[in-house]
Structures are given as C-alpha cells and as structure tokens.
Backbone:
C-alpha cells in the first residue's frame, strides 16, 4: 500500500516512549534557517530538521493531554493483504458504528478505556502507536492503519470474546506530511520556477515584469469597482494584473496590508478582476477561517455581477475539509464547496434520469402523449400491485408534464450554477434558462394530430397565459421542442456518472479556487494553475507555502499580509528559535523585496491609530477622511476615561495562576465585567447597537472573564443590539469591534510580562477597535518591562489618556469588592505551604472595614509569605509571644506562633489576632500579652521554639505522651502539607502541568519565585 510521506511516518512510528517524552531529543540537530540560500537543494533541506522537531513536539504535547483526548472503540481488527513483517504492519479496523477517524490521525491502541479521573497514563499501560492510512468513503467506521509494532493475533481473538480494543486520538499530521512531500518534491526537481527567484536578495529595482511585457499594451482590466479604491489599493492591484500578462519571467509580488487598510477588500477586488480575465487562480490562506472570509467577499462581488441567472458561479470553487470548515453553517458558501457541488451535479448526469434523459422524455411526451400513456399503462400492468391505481389520460398528461418540467428546471439550474463556464457556454446556459422560463406557467392538453384519422394520433399543446403562440409566432410547444433539441447540440459535455470525475472537471476548469495552503496539495494531479495568491501570507510558515508554490504550471505569486502582526504558530521552542515559524513574506521583507503598501486605514479612530502607526509602521499610514469626521467620535459611557483611547491603570491587581499554567488577574476581570455591564445598560436604555470585544493574551483570563460575564450579565443582549466577543489575541487576528477592552493581566511590579512583550502580539491587541480602545494594565509592571508597553504608557500620559481605575466610582467599588472576595477566599490551597494559619474573629471584623484594595493585597501577600515560613522576627520581639508587622505607615498586623492540640500531638500554628492602626498597636500587644499569661511555662516554651530549615522557619510537633509524661519537648518531624484558615483543613495541591495553547512563557516557575520575592515585607 502506498502511503504518502512514508519516510516521515516511519520515523514517527520508530520513536520509543522515552524518545517522545524527551523534549531535547533533537536539540543541537536543528540548525537556524538562513535568510538566503545558495541553491534550491539547500533551501528545501534547511526546513527538514525543524519539521521533524515540530512533529515530535506535537506528539509530545498530545501525550501530555492524552487523558482528555477522544476515544474510539474498535470492534474488529485484522491484518490486510499488504501486511508484511517487519515494517508493513497494515491492519483493517472496524470502529463502533457512530465513530470515525480520518487519514493521518495518530492513535494509541490500548485495551484499557481511559475513563478514570487521572486518565490514561501512557507510561504505565501497554499501547501501540498507529497512523490511519485510509478511510473507506462508503463506510466511515472502516479504516486501514499502519502500526508501529505487530499486534498479537491471539490477543485479537481474545478481544472478540472478552473486551474491545480502544484507539486514543493523539494528533493529526496531515499538514506535516504534505510539507514533507513538498520539500522532497522540490529536492527531486518539481516546479521551481517561482522559488528559485527568491533564494537570495533581489538586487533589481524593477517590478518583476519582463521588458517586452512592460512595453506592451495593457489589456484594459480596470473594472468600475476600482472607483471605490484608494490609490495605494489601485496600484497594488494593477501591479498584480501586469504580472499576470507576463509569460517570460516568474515573479512573487508582496502586498503589505497593515490593520484596517482594506487588505481583504483589495484582495477580493483583485480576484474578481482576475475572474473576469479568465485567469486560473488559486487563493490560499493558512487557516479555514481566513479562507472562508476571503472567499465570502469574492462570492458577494461575483453574485452581484451575474447577468444570466446563476451562470458563472461555477467558476468559483472552495475545497478542503468541510467538517473543520463547518461549511454546512455557511449558507453563503455551501453551494461553492466542491463536495456540495458534486452532490448537486451528480444526478444531472445519470443515464436514466439525468438532464439528457429528461429532455428525451419531455420530447416524447409532447410529440406522442398517447404512446407515452400506453407505456405507462403497460408498466402498471407489469407491476401487478394491488395498491397501484392507474391514472386516466386526462390525469396522466398534466402530472407527467409537471414532473418532467420540474426535473428539467432542477437539472438546468444545477448545470448553470455549478458547472464552470469553460464547460457550459453562454449560449447553452441562455437556452436552458429560456426553456425554464417558457413553460414555467404553462398548462398542457392533447388534441388530435393533423392527418391522423380514427382518433389514435394525439399531440400535446402548451398554453401560457391563455396564449398558444410564442413571441416568434410559432406555437409554444413547437418552440419549446426546438429549444430542447438545440440544447444537447450546443452542450456537448459527455455523460459523467462518476463523482470523482465530476470533481476533477469542476476543479480542473474553475477560474478561482480557494483552499488552505495545506489542502492545495490536492491539485498536484489536476490541470495547471497560472497564478497563486496567498492571503494572510505573514501567518503561513515558509515551508508550508512551498505546497502551493510548487504546483505545476504556476508562473507568478502574490503574497498579501503584514509581518508586523501575528506569525505562524509553532509548537516546538527549538523549532521556533530556528526560525521555523518565519513566513516567506517576512523573509522577503527582511531581504528588502519591494512591497506595495496599502497606506490608508479605515478602521480606527485617529486617537487609536496614532500609537501603532508610529511604533510599528513609521507613520506611513494615513487616516481615511471617514475616521477623522466628528461623528466617528463615540462616547458610550460618561467620563474622559471612556473616550476613544485610554490606558486605565489597575494598581491593585494581582496576577495568579488559573487554568493550567496560564495567568489571570481577578481585579481586571471585575473591572471588565463592570464596564461590560454598564455598556449593556446603555445599549438597552438607548436602543443603540454596540459591538464589544474583550482581548487578553492569557487563556485563563479569557475563561475567567467569560465566567464572570455569564454570571453578571446573564441573558442580556439588548434585544440583539449588544454583541460581545471574549477571545485571545490569536482569536482576534483579522477581527474588529466598535469597542475593544484589553486585559493585559500582568501585575508583579518588577516588569516581568512574558510573551506580552511580543511586538506582533501587541500590534494586534491595539488595532482591533473602531471607536474606542480601553487598555487595562498595571502601570508599574508595564513601565518596568522595558518593552513596547513602556512607550505606550508614556504616550498615554503625554496625550492625557492615562487614568487610574479608582477615578471611576463604579470601578472603585468593583475593585474593593474583588479584593474582599479574594481575601475571604484565602482558604484556597497555597502551593508548598508549611504553616497552618488561624484567624481571630476580631481580625475578620477589622479586615472587613478596610476600604483600600491595595491593603487587602498587602495583607494577603503577607499571610501567604508567613505560611511558607518567612518568620524572620526582629531582635526586639524575640522574647515576646506577640508580634506586630508593618503593612504600611498606618496599619500593623498583630500575630503570634501558637500551639494547637491535634489528635495525638501538639503542633505549632500561626494565629492572626488583629489588624490595627500603628497608634493602637502597643495597646493591642499589651492586651494579648495579658491573655498569654494564662499559658503554662511548657506552652510558652513551645510557642517560642523555632526550627530553621534553610532560610525559612518550619512548624514543630510534640507527642502528647512526652509532654504529659515529663514536660520535656521532643521535637518531631516538620510538616509541609496544609494550610488551615478559619479552622478548615485543606490539602495543598500542585498546579496542572498542561501547556497553554497560546504558548505562554516557558520560565513560569522563575516568574512565580520573582513574584514572591518582590512582595516581601519587613517583619
């Protein structure tokens, strides 16, 4: 059995578990991908080590979360005819009825269903890794797999009798296999016309068009829709159209589209113009979402331009994985999807009921209705069914005519809509639509045929609106018969009864084809493509772009994107550092390849656009007149803080670990929720349509905001006028909303901001809003980060756009309420806590009266710290049981080390007695000292005893027997396990080690320690 990418697949299946779990397996073997190459062979070889490492990282990542992966049940498994030891371990697998797998799915075969709480532990349980090679198109639950190890046949037979085998989904490596194939195709001498032109820096200043074509006359392709474009958009399009005319040179053009500059509009107009020129063009994007977006824009332009029904839509086709595209949900695009198109065309070519058969049946009915009726009666008699009642001639004729008319209308409409114009001429389509319209409202009857005696000869007559004659002064039936006979003469496409052949005809003759770059591999066996357009090219790995760039016949390519925004996602840190995520667009930009800049932005209020324009684009972008108008300034909420652009300082927030190893900031969550609630009220009260987007770089923050909004704004949408999207930065690439609220999360004071410092990510964050952009963040942290965020805050202050959240009364209440809630929830387990902590009722009451959220944070930090054993006491307090710690210039915390009887032992605990003003602290200490005078000498000694372990103090334990027997202290083992708040015992837990989808910073534990050290207070 032939398996694509067999070399890569064999390598993957050869990895042992230890090798898969070794994150450094290929460290030192992956070299940096250069920006210039000496030869095509060097070019393709440079990506292969990184591709192997990236595939390894994807498998490693899947194993870490295997316990929550989908599971399929295998009912039957047997070796195939191609099975051969030791390498061709092919098996046919029958899955449960409702389950399916797709080619290139990697699965782990095991006889244990992973249904326990701790999931499937691949390191402790037997498993065999396999890859799905083929799926039966007629039976989705039957697949062929290639296993990494032989499956013992006796176990297979036992499986039938006892229990099933299970397949745990790991990952799909389709794209990696396609990249592998394209890289090796390049090494074997594929279509290198394009890539050979960009191996090194281009020293030419020309536009890539050869001299004869540059001097030749233009073909006049300047559609009227150019009137809606600005000069930079027109220049970009015209340069691409000029390239199309050149058949002597190979060129790659770059169109640079910063945020809001109409990149998608420019792309769609260019593609629409290429369609009018009948230029066979493939448009690729990195993702399904982006390909659907650009296809939708083009379809709208095409649909508005049609002059003959739906004729011409067949020149536009979309292909790919329909399930992942969710194509059934896209009513505007579903008819353009290749599989849906084949489903519509397939019945048209059936020999017994297709369009030709329907034409012949209609001709016979009109010319010899009596004969057709007699055939009908013969068929009824042949069936001899008791339930079948024959119709009279008067019933049969109009009913049969109506059936055939509907069949022909459906067939002709499907052919005109779904066939490319290269297969169906304008003349044939016009005749088909004419025939449909001619008999749309016709009635039929039969009259004796002239010259035939005895009443045996009848012919059908058609009447339309009471008239038997058509515009040509011939009878309707004669003209209709003429049309029906003419159509097969001018539409000569032979009958095709095979779905695959219909698909190849549609793909092979369409003018505009849309797919992801990965799926474009399907076109390697089809008719050549002339021009390649890659939209969102800066988000596409260069090696993945090689898949469409090497397609047969391609002469020119147009790359449209912005390297200043998000790059491609890369799983492996090793591959990332090697430059595996760099796009061809970015590399050519580094090499100073000419870019056509779209230089007018239409999205952002000018107060929003000014900072990213200066910081990322060197003030090359102009604001369109529309965004400068007074009515583009919106004031949704009262106060200067809620103008077009604001940085809102959240001074009292605290970053903490939420979902997995991702960060969240509950104070920012509360502020976002409060702003959203106020905006919703405005929308409901004023009946104003408002769209809001909330963006955060951290997955845990996105989830926390979603939960909070669902709790506070449940069911509110102002009658459909209010819309809200809460997403990560990656989820908002390419999106825009009226109002954008950014939650930066980081709040540690020392400037650690992790991947928030990434300039491309920041650019996307700052350029999604139309009317208002409100950025929430901690000034001290961002200023100390020495990143782009420092300049943003400085710019906001200079422009008087900097505000403290407490300036807004509603936000101030939200912040203090959050601080109280977080403090009340302090009984949440603390990682690595050594001491149990107890609160007095007086302390709880005093804390509840505090109005400063920053003080809650300080007290919480102090309690977390002393629970870890940071009990460095002042020399002056050494003899005193009661300690006081300074929170600020005003407040002191009064606390002590106490002993607690617990089962058969005494244990040291921390008792927090009170929080009081500095002036009241001496009196509070005096009062508590009087209380401790009731302690026995032994109890006092136990309270004073200290056990130092490194830099921290650990609690001591004493057995009851030793204490009751002779009063001598017998030091027991130190305890590390739990924290007691308000008398409730909670066992400490370690954080989840799963990695974030957004690849948050790798040095998370260093960050945790830095945060702890930065919050130390003097005891």
Residues:
């Amino acid at each position: 059995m032939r398996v694509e990418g067999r070399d890569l697949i064999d390598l993957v299946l050869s990895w042992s578990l230890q090798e898969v779990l070794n994150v450094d397996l290929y460290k030192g073997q992956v070299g940096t991908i250069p920006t210039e190459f000496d030869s095509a062979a060097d070019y393709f070889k440079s990506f292969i080590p990184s591709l192997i490492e990236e595939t390894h990282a994807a498998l490693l990542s899947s194993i870490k979360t295997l316990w929550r992966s989908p599971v399929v049940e295998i009912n039957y498994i047997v070796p195939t005819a191609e099975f051969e030891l030791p390498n061709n371990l092919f098996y046919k697998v029958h899955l449960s009825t409702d389950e399916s797998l797709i080619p290139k799915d990697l699965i782990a075969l095991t006889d244990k269903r992973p249904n326990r709480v701790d999931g499937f532990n691949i390191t402790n349980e037997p498993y065999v890794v396999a890859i799905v090679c083929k799926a039966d198109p007629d039976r989705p639950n039957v697949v062929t797999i290639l296993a990494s190890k032989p499956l013992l046949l006796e176990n297979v037979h036992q499986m039938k009798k006892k229990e099933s085998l299970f397949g745990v989904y790991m990952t799909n490596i389709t794209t990696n296999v396609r990249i592998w194939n394209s890289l090796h195709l390049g090494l074997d001498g594929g279509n290198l016309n394009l890539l050979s032109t960009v191996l090194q820096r281009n020293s030419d200043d020309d536009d890539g068009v050869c001299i004869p074509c540059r001097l030749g006359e233009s073909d006049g392709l300047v559609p009227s829709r150019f009137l809606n474009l600005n000069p930079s958009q027109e220049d970009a399009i015209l340069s691409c159209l000029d390239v199309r005319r050149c058949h002597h040179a190979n060129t790659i053009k770059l169109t640079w589209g910063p945020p809001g500059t109409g990149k998608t509009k420019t792309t769609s107009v260019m593609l629409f113009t290429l369609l009018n020129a009948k230029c066979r063009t493939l448009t690729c994007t990195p993702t399904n979402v982006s390909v659907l977006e650009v296809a939708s824009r083009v379809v709208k332009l095409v649909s508005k331009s049609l002059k003959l029904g739906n004729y011409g839509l067949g020149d536009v086709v979309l292909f790919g994985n329909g399930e992942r595209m969710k194509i059934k949900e896209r009513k505007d695009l579903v008819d353009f999807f290749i599989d849906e198109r084949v489903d519509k065309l397939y019945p048209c070519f059936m020999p017994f009921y297709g369009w030709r058969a329907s034409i012949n049946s209609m001709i016979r009915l009109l010319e010899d209705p009596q004969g057709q009726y007699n055939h009908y009666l013969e068929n009824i008699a042949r069936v001899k069914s008791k339930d079948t009642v024959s119709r009279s001639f008067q019933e049969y004729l109009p009913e049969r005519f109506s059936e055939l008319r509907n069949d022909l209308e459906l067939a002709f409409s499907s052919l005109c809509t779904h066939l490319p114009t290269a297969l169906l001429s304008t003349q044939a389509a016009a005749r088909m639509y004419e025939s449909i319209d001619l008999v749309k409202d016709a009635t039929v009857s039969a009259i004796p045929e002239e010259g035939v005696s005895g009443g045996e000869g009848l012919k059908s007559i058609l009447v339309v609106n009471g008239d038997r004659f058509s515009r040509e002064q011939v009878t309707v039936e004669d003209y209709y018969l003429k049309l029906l006979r003419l159509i097969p003469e001018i539409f000569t496409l032979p009958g095709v009864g095979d779905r695959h052949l219909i698909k190849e005809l549609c793909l092979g003759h369409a003018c505009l084809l849309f797919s992801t770059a990965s799926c474009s591999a399907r076109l390697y066996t089809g008719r050549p493509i002339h021009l390649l357009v890659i939209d969102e090219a800066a988000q596409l790995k260069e090696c993945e772009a090689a898949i469409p760039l090497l397609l047969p016949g391609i002469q020119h390519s147009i790359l449209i994107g912005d390297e200043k925004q998000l790059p491609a996602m890369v799983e492996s840190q090793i591959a990332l550092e090697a430059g595996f995520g760099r796009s061809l667009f970015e590399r050519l930009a580094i090499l100073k390849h000419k870019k056509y800049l779209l230089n007018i932005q239409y999205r952002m209020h000018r107060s929003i656009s000014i900072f990213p324009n200066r910081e990322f684009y060197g003030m090359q972008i102009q604001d369109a007149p529309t965004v400068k108008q007074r009515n583009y300034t919106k004031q949704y909420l009262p106060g200067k803080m809620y103008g077009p652009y604001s940085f809102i300082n959240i001074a009292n927030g605290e970053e903490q670990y939420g979902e997995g190893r991702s960060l969240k900031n509950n104070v920012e969550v509360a502020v976002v929720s409060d702003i959203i609630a106020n905006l919703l009220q405005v929308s409901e009260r004023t009946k104003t349509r408002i769209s809001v987007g909330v963006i955060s770089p951290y997955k845990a923050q996105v989830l926390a905001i979603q939960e909070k909004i669902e709790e506070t704004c449940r069911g509110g949408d102002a009658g459909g006028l209010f819309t809200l999207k809460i997403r990560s930065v990656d989820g908002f690439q390419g999106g825009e909303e009226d109002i954008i609220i950014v939650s930066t999360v980081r709040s540690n004071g020392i400037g650690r901001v992790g991947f928030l410092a990434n300039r491309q990510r920041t650019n996307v964050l700052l350029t999604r809003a139309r009317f208002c952009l409100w950025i929430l963040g901690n000034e001290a942290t961002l200023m100390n980060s020495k990143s782009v965020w420092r300049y943003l805050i400085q710019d906001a202050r200079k422009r008087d756009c900097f505000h403290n959240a407490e300036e807004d009364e509603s936000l101030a209440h939200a912040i203090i309420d959050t601080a109280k809630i977080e403090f009340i929830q302090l009984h949440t387990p603390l990682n690595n806590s050594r001491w149990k902590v107890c609160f007095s009722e007086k302390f709880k009451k005093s804390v509840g009266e505090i109005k400063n959220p920053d003080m809650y944070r300080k007290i919480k930090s102090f309690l977390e710290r002393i629970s870890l054993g940071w009990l460095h006491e002042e020399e002056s307090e050494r003899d005193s049981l009661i300690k006081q710690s300074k929170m600020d210039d005003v407040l002191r915390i009064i606390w002590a080390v106490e002993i607690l009887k617990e089962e058969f032992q005494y244990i040291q605990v921390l008792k927090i007695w009170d929080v009081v003003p500095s002036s009241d602290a001496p009196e509070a200490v005096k009062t508590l000292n009087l209380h401790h005078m009731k302690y026995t000498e032994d109890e006092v000694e136990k309270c004073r005893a200290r056990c130092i372990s490194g830099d921290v103090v650990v609690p001591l334990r004493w057995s009851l027997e030793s204490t009751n027997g002779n009063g001598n202290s017998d030091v027991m083992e130190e305890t590390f396990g739990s924290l007691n708040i308000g008398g409730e015992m909670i066992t400490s837990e370690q954080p989840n080690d799963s990695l974030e989808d957004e690849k948050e910073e790798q040095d998370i534990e260093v960050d945790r320690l830095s945060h702890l050290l930065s919050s130390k207070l003097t005891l």
User: Anything to note?
Assistant: Confidence is low (pLDDT under 50) at residues 155-162, 965-999, 1001-1019.
